[in-house]
Design a protein that fits this description.
The complex is a heterodimer of chains A (261) and B (211). Chain A has 261 residues and is mainly alpha-helical. Chain A contains 10 helices and no strands. In chain A, helix 1 crosses helix 8 and helix 6 packs antiparallel against helix 10. Chain B is mostly helical and 211 residues long. Chain B has helices at residues 2-18, 22-47, 50-78, 90-111, 117-139, 143-164, 170-198. The chains are: A mainly alpha (261), B mainly alpha (211).
C-alpha cells in the first residue's frame, strides 16, 4: 500500500524533473519542477467535455487505464510478475487505442494505429529482456545488455524522443498525444497520471530489478533527458530499425546469459 | 568498468550497422574510438607505463579527432548525399552480425578452452567488432564506408591485441597507427579518383570494369 502511494506521489515529479533538466540544459527558463502536479490539479478541477459521437468506451477508458496501471505496480517488484505486468499494460493500451478510434476524429485513429504499430514491435523486446532477467544468475554482461535493451524499449513505451515527442501537439508527429486529444478534465488528468506512473514503473524495473540498485533512478532520468536533447524524432518507419537495435541487444543478452558471461 | 566499456564498443559497432546516414556512421565510429581510448587510458593508469599513455594519446588524436575530421571533409568535398546505401538492409545485417558474434564466441572458446570467462568475452567481442567492420565494408555501397569499415576492423584488432597479449610493443603500435593514418589518406585520394572517373562513389558501378 505504501508502495502504491509512493509511486503515485513521485510519478509526476519524475516527469517534471526530466522537463526541468531538459530546459536547463537548453538554457531556457521552463516550467518549475512541480509543474506536472499543478497541471493535474488544474485538470481535476475542470469540467469535462465529451464528444456527442463518443460511446461508453470513451468514458470508461480513463478508469480502465488508470486502474490497470495502478495494479501493475504490485507486479513490478519481482521478475515473476513482469510478464503479468506487460499484459496489464497491453490491456490499458488496448482500451486507449479503442478510445482513440471511438470519437472518429482523424487524429485519434492515426494515433491508435501508430501506437499499435510501435507496441507490436516493442513488446517482444521487453519480453526478451525480461526472460534474460529470469535466466541470468551470475552474468554481468547479460544484465548490462538487457538493461540497455530495456532502456531503449522504455523510450518507445513512454513516448520519449526518438519515437514520439511529448512536448508537441503537431499533428504529423503525435502518437500518444493523438489518442488523448479528445479528453479533457478529470479523464485527461487520470490518463496523464497513468502515463507518468507507467514511466516510473519502467524506470523502477530497470533500476531496481535489472541493476538491483534503486539509486540509479535519477541516473536513468538524466539519461532519458540527454537522449531526448541529443536526438531528433525519427520517421515512423525508421522506428522499426530503432526497436530492432534494442531487439538485437536483448537477443545478445539472452545469448550471454546462456553462455554465462 | 572494463566490461561496460567492452560492451559499449560492441554496441557502437552494431549502431554503425544500423546507421543510415554518413554522419551517424562517422559519429558512431568516433564514439567507439573514444571508448577504446578510455579503456587504454585506464590500463595505462593501472600499469603506470609511459608507452600505454602514448598509445592512448595516439588513439585520441588519430581515431577520435583526425580521421573522423578527414572523413567529414572528404564527404563535404565530394558533395555526395548523406545516405549510406545498402546492399544488405540494416535489419538483415544486424541479424547476420548477431550470428557472427555467436560464432566468434564459439571460435574463441575453441581457441582458448581453459581461460577465464572475462578473457573469452573480451576476445570474442574483439572478433565480433572485426566481423562487423568487414560487414560494413562488404554490405555498404559508398566507397567512403569501406574506409570506415577498415577502421572498425583495425579497432577490433587493437582490442584483441590489448586484451590477449596486453598490448603490442610501442614501435609496432606506432607503425600501425602510421599505417592506418596513411591508408586513410591514400584511400581518400582513391575515393576522389573514383568519384571523378565514375561520377559517383557507388562501389556497384565498379563492376563495369570486369571483362
Amino acid at each position: 500500500m505504501l508502495r502504491l502511494l509512493l509511486v503515485i506521489m513521485f510519478a509526476p515529479l519524475v516527469s517534471g524533473f526530466i522537463t526541468w533538466l531538459k530546459n536547463n540544459l537548453r538554457l531556457r527558463r521552463g516550467p518549475g519542477i512541480f509543474q506536472p502536479y499543478y497541471n493535474l490539479a488544474k485538470y481535476f478541477s475542470k469540467d469535462e467535455v465529451v464528444a456527442d459521437s463518443a460511446s461508453w468506451i470513451f468514458r470508461l477508458t480513463p478508469y480502465v487505464v488508470f486502474s490497470a496501471t495502478l495494479s501493475a505496480i504490485f507486479f513490478s517488484a519481482t521478475p515473476n510478475g513482469l510478464i503479468t505486468l506487460l499484459f496489464i499494460f497491453s490491456l490499458a493500451r488496448f482500451f486507449l487505442a479503442l478510445a482513440g478510434l471511438d470519437t472518429a476524429s482523424a487524429f485519434g485513429g492515426m494515433g491508435s494505429s501508430r501506437e499499435m504499430f510501435i507496441s507490436s514491435l516493442v513488446e517482444p523486446v521487453v519480453i526478451l529482456a525480461v526472460f534474460c532477467l529470469g535466466l541470468s544468475v551470475n552474468a554481468p554482461s547479460a544484465v548490462f545488455l538487457a538493461g540497455a535493451a530495456l532502456f531503449l524499449a522504455t523510450l518507445a513505451e513512454t513516448a520519449r524522443m526518438p519515437v514520439d515527442n511529448q512536448e508537441t501537439h503537431l499533428e504529423l508527429t503525435m502518437v500518444h498525444e493523438a489518442m488523448l486529444l479528445e479528453y479533457s478534465g478529470r479523464s485527461l488528468a487520470l490518463l496523464e497520471l497513468a502515463a507518468q506512473i507507467k514511466q516510473l514503473i519502467f524506470f523502477l524495473i530497470i533500476a531496481g530489478l535489472i541493476f538491483s540498485n534503486l539509486f540509479l533512478l535519477p541516473v536513468i532520468a538524466i539519461l532519458v533527458a540527454l537522449v531526448e536533447l541529443s536526438m531528433a524524432k525519427m520517421r515512423l518507419f525508421r522506428v522499426v530499425d530503432f526497436v530492432a537495435f534494442a531487439g538485437v541487444l536483448a537477443v545478445l543478452s539472452i545469448i550471454m546469459s546462456v553462455l554465462g558471461a | 568498468m572494463e566490461l561496460l566499456l567492452l560492451l559499449g564498443i560492441l554496441t557502437t559497432a552494431y549502431a554503425m550497422l544500423t546507421a543510415k546516414r554518413m554522419s551517424a556512421l562517422i559519429a558512431n565510429f568516433r564514439l567507439q574510438s573514444l571508448l577504446l581510448f578510455i579503456m587504454t587510458f585506464m590500463e595505462a593508469l593501472a600499469h603506470g607505463s609511459f608507452n600505454l599513455y602514448l598509445v592512448a594519446a595516439l588513439i585520441l588524436a588519430l581515431k577520435v579527432f583526425l580521421i573522423p575530421l578527414a572523413l567529414f571533409r572528404m564527404l563535404k568535398r565530394l558533395k555526395v548525399d548523406e545516405h549510406v546505401g545498402f546492399f544488405i538492409n540494416p535489419l538483415l545485417s544486424l541479424a547476420i552480425s548477431l550470428g557472427l558474434t555467436y560464432l566468434a564466441w564459439v571460435f574463441v572458446r575453441q581457441l582458448f578452452p581453459d581461460s577465464a570467462i572475462g578473457f573469452v568475452l573480451a576476445a570474442a567481442i574483439s572478433f565480433a567488432v572485426m566481423q562487423v567492420g568487414a560487414m560494413i565494408m562488404v554490405a555498404r555501397i559508398k566507397a567512403v564506408t569501406q574506409i570506415i569499415g577498415l577502421m572498425v576492423i583495425e579497432n577490433g584488432i587493437f582490442l584483441l591485441a590489448s586484451t590477449v597479449t596486453g598490448g603490442l610493443s610501442l614501435v609496432v603500435e606506432m607503425a600501425v597507427f602510421l599505417d592506418v593514418f596513411i591508408s586513410v589518406i591514400i584511400l581518400g585520394v582513391f575515393v576522389y579518383r573514383i568519384n571523378e572517373l565514375f561520377t559517383g562513389i557507388d562501389v556497384d558501378q565498379l563492376k563495369g570494369l570486369r571483362g
